Amino acid sequence: MLSLVLIAAIHAVNHALFNMLTPQGITISHYFGFKSLSNITAGFTLYLFFYGFGQIPIGFISDRAPRKTILAAGAMLNGLAIAAAGAFPTYRVFLISLAVAGLGAAAYHPVGAAYLSELFSEAKGTALGISGIGATFGLTLGPFLGGALCERIGWRNTFFSFSAAAILVSIIFFLAAKEPARETRAGRAAGKIGWSRPVIIFLCLAAAVFTFREFSGWGGYYILPIFLESYHRFSVRTAGLISGLQSVGGLFAQPLGGYFSDRVGRRRLMSVLLFFVFLIVIAMPFCGRSMIVPLVLLYSVAYTATVPIIDAMIADRTPPAIRGGVFGLFMAAGIGISAFSPLAQAGILDATGASFRGFVTCFSLLGTTALISFVILLMFKDAGK
Questions:
Q1: What pLDDT does residue 308 have?
Q2: CB 322, CB 194: distance < 8 Å
Q3: What b/e sequence results for 124-148 when a residue is b if at least 16 CB atoms lie within 10 Å of its CB, and e otherwise?
Q4: Which pLDDT belongs to residue 163?
Q5: pLDDT > 90 in the chain, percent
Q6: Of 111, 130, 213, 354, which residue is most buried, by most CB within 10 angstroms?
Q7: Which helix (H) or strand (E) holds 325?
Q8: Nearest 5°: CA angle at 211, between 206 and 216?
Q9: Domain 2-179+194-377 carries which CATH code?
Q10: How far from chain centre, in Å, is Cα 308?
Q11: Over pLDDT 70: what percentage of the chain?
């Protein structure tokens, strides 16, 4: 249980270090003297690109190396790179640092999911849902504190503050967390039998579900604070606070989503949730200033509840001996491709002068990708087995 609490803390800083960037995009653009959003967004995309595709080698390495050590080292590297971005504020160093930070962040998901699946083999959905509470804190407090601290102490000192938190958590985790027991050779040999054609087809479909869902989710983290600042004229601090509410529902939605998926079936529950995500995202630009917070809260419940469900769905069908590598492939597909979601939206906004029509186009794109994820999920009937 101590390890579960500590990995939730690692999960929190993993997401906080990226999401604290999003409300500061306009401020950092002005610091470097850029007139468009695309230049700074390129740094966010580099972070997510390395965050996503870096999980392939790290996932496979974790099947042969101590998972606890990899998790701690990744959080440490993430924090140090964010500190470098603030300490040496040139545009080139900014881009390189965010790329390295993304590589550090890549150590969490494939390793963390495999780590928890081994510690709680009979209750994977529940354990992944509880660890998701940490993600919720990171996703919620990241943009809120990022915006608030940016206004008070500047973006560079904000970077240093988040960096210090990540380094501290990584040290505590390494010293106190438990390393799960590894399998015997017989277990690993049995795991190789798992690569049957039906399993591969299942994994490809699940990867597609994951990828389109992630494209919508990461895009929402990027576009909402810009929409609130540019169109509704909220302050950086308020935009960060409301943006953080996209994840606050996960405090109870993630553990409940994981718990109920262990009992009522993963496919049915996730299908309903994804369809509601589609409806909410499409409605987001039209809801008006007074209704934006209730709609964002509703979105946070529907979206975050899907996170432990898809992770548990994958773990159900993956032999433990190769689970880290499989999660690495999934995360690379989902987060690596989603890295281009903020960049695509920045291009739309730059082309339309950040007009209301441009924001409607962005939210429609994100809603459509959630709908595609829903449609793909309906293509296979045994996903919950």
A1: 81
A2: yes
A3: bbbbbbbbbbbbbbbbbbbbbbbbb
A4: 94
A5: 26
A6: 111
A7: helix 323-331
A8: 130
A9: 1.20.1250.20
A10: 12
A11: 91
**What are the C-alpha distances in Å from 113 to residues 6, 11, 194?**
14, 10, 18
For residue 52 the two structure tokens come to: 């996503």
Residues 329/64, Cβ–Cβ less than 8 Å: no
Task: Assess whether pLDDT exceeds 50 at residue 187.
Answer: no
Q: What angle do CA 313, 73, 319 make, to 5 degrees?
A: 25
DSSP 195: -
Predicted confidence band of residue 188 (pLDDT cuts 50, 70, 90): very low
Asked if residue 184 lies in contact with residue 321, where contact means CB atoms within 8 angstroms, the answer is: no
Range with lowest mean pLDDT among 219-228, 266-275, 307-316:
307-316
Length of the chain in terms of residues written: 385
Q: What is the pTM of this model?
A: 0.68
Given a contact cutoff of 8 angstroms between Cβ atoms, the answer to whether 93 and 81 are in contact is no
Q: How confident is the model at residue 190 (pLDDT cuts 50, 70, 90)?
A: very low
Are residues 273 and 306 in contact, defined by beta-carbon separation less than 8 angstroms?
yes
Using CA of residue 143, residue 146, residue 148, residue 154, what is the dihedral sign? Answer: negative
CA angle at residue 247 from 237 to 240, to 5 degrees? Answer: 10
293 and 245 Cβ atoms separated by less than 8 Å = yes
Give the model's pLDDT for residue 8. 87
DSSP state of 318: S
Cα 316 to Cα 375: distance, rounded to the nearest angstrom:
21
DSSP letter at 333? I
What is residue 65's three-state secondary structure?
Answer: coil
List all residues 6 or more positions away from 88 whose beta carbon is below 8 Å from its beta carbon: 97
Q: How many CA atoms lie within 13 A of 258 on its CB side?
A: 29
Residue ranges per domain, the chain?
Answer: 2-179+194-377
Q: How far, in Å, CA of 297 to CA of 12, rounded?
A: 19
| Tokens 């695309």 -> residue | 38
H/E element holding 257? helix 250-264
Q: Is residue 123 classed as helix, strand or coil in its secondary structure?
A: coil
Query: Taking a C-beta distance cutoff of 8 angstroms, is the pair 47, 103 a contact?
Result: no
Mean pLDDT for the chain overall = 83
